[in-house]
TrEMBL record:
Residues 359-382 are annotated as: Disordered. GO terms for molecular function: DNA binding. Residues 371-382 have a biased composition (Basic residues). Keywords: Chromosome partition, DNA integration, DNA recombination, DNA-binding, Plasmid. This is Site-specific integrase. Residues 188-381 form the Tyr recombinase domain. The keyword DNA-binding applies. SUPFAM superfamilies: DNA breaking-rejoining enzymes, lambda integrase-like, N-terminal domain. GO terms for biological process: chromosome segregation; DNA integration; DNA recombination. The keyword Nucleotide-binding does not apply. PANTHER family: PHAGE INTEGRASE-RELATED, TYROSINE RECOMBINASE XERC.
Length: 382
């Protein structure tokens, strides 16, 4: 299906507007976003940036908004209306949650072939079959959020929409997939660190990333990628009995997923992670700006910070080199691994949460409960 004609000047202007919020958007897709999103979409995103919405949340909103706009053009030949009528919400559910068996006998069931082909040709659809219910719910939730930010009320909570989702999920049961990869506990991290055999810039940087991400409480990818020298402050060394004092460093977090940035949230690094970080910054001659930076083909250190996705790629590369299964680990495993390791070592939950900055005791304690259950008496009756 041909896309509606769009003023070239308008597209260029939107691309330039997107450049101004490039730090939090998938800007490698800037031109595609500029063509699919309209002026009001871009203005909404700019407003959310100014309101201080978290980077990852904004990326997810942008990704879902782009998909919704592409789907609306493919399914209705028009841009997404604001607010969306209830009928369009029901159409979205019907196009994405459907019964594969019924589809075999009824070609009109589910997403129409021309809509499927259009979205697939643009790279929006890759897997075959209906969407995961969680994906549909997330996109509807973000659609609702964007509707409210535009000052409208939507029909997202209407009984018919809720019923349509509930019945669709019940009709097509799906196996619940594991939400996250295996935890990168202390033993796993030691295997990853053992793969750094040189003092090359890349090895120094990646070693520091792994150690800082883990030791700082399992920091998120975006927080590691966005870390700046201005957030670091040297603390007095920690005295050790019968040994040299250990270097100590404070990281002032600023705004994160669970903090507003108004409070002075500080976490501390001691010993090996500090040595690793100092070695990287000294070798790369980094004194201000981004701490973890891209490294060019010829070993040139950029002034540009690494992309958050690079943290995941770095970890997976080391997982392979360590002889572990690449698909079983991800950067999130550093976060879950920190709390799991803390539980295994008997560190009190409140103390571990001071470092990880988990806001929910229930979420953080789940790692502790898991570690206790594995080694507890209930699991060793025989």
């Amino acid at each position: 299906m041909a896309k509606p004609k769009t003023s070239l000047t308008a597209v260029v202007c939107r691309a330039e507007e997107l450049d101004t919020i490039a730090a939090v958007l998938p800007i490698e897709r800037r031109d595609e976003l500029a063509e699919l999103l309209n002026d009001q979409d871009v203005e909404t995103l700019r407003h959310l940036v100014n309101q201080g919405m978290g980077d990852n949340t904004l990326r997810a909103l942008t990704s879902d908004l782009t998909y919704l706009e592409a789907w609306a053009l493919a399914a209705t030949k028009k841009s997404l209306p604001w607010p969306a009528p209830e009928a369009l919400l029901l159409k979205f559910v019907a196009h994405h949650l459907w019964d594969s068996q019924r589809r075999e006998s009824d070609p009109d069931h589910g997403m129409p072939a021309d809509v499927d082909e259009n979205l697939r040709s643009q790279g929006f659809l890759k897997s075959v079959g209906p969407h995961a219910p969680a994906t549909v719910r997330r996109r509807l939730a973000n659609w609702s959020t964007l509707t409210k930010w535009r000052g409208f009320d939507g029909a997202f909570a209407s009984p018919s929409v809720k019923s349509a989702i509930r019945l669709a999920v019940r009709a097509v049961p799906r196996t619940r997939l594991r939400r996250s990869a295996k935890a990168v506990t202390g033993g796993v991290l030691a295997k990853l660190l053992a793969t750094y055999a040189t003092d090359s810039l890349r090895d120094l940087r990646d070693r520091a990333i792994m150690m800082v991400a883990f030791a700082s409480g399992g920091r998120r990818r975006s927080e590691i990628a966005g870390l700046r020298c201005e957030q670091l402050s040297v603390e007095p060394p920690i005295p050790i009995e019968n040994g040299a004092p250990l270097p100590s460093l404070a990281i002032h977090l600023g705004r994160t997923k669970t903090t507003s940035g108004e409070q002075n949230d500080v976490i501390y690094l001691t010993g090996r992670p500090v040595f690793a970080l100092n070695a990287w910054m000294a070798a790369a001659k980094i004194e201000n700006g981004s701490v973890f930076r891209a490294i060019g083909r010829w070993g040139t250190v950029s002034r540009r910070a690494i992309d958050p996705q690079s943290v995941n790629a770095i970890l997976k590369q080391r997982v392979e080199l360590a002889g572990l299964e690449r698909g079983e680990f991800s950067a999130h495993g550093l976060r879950s691994g920190y709390l799991t390791e803390a539980a295994n070592r008997g560190i009190p939950l409140p103390e571990a949460m001071e470092q990880s900055r988990h806001r929910s005791v229930q979420q953080a304690s789940s790692y502790y409960n898991h570690a206790t259950r594995r080694s507890g008496r209930a699991a060793r009756l025989l």
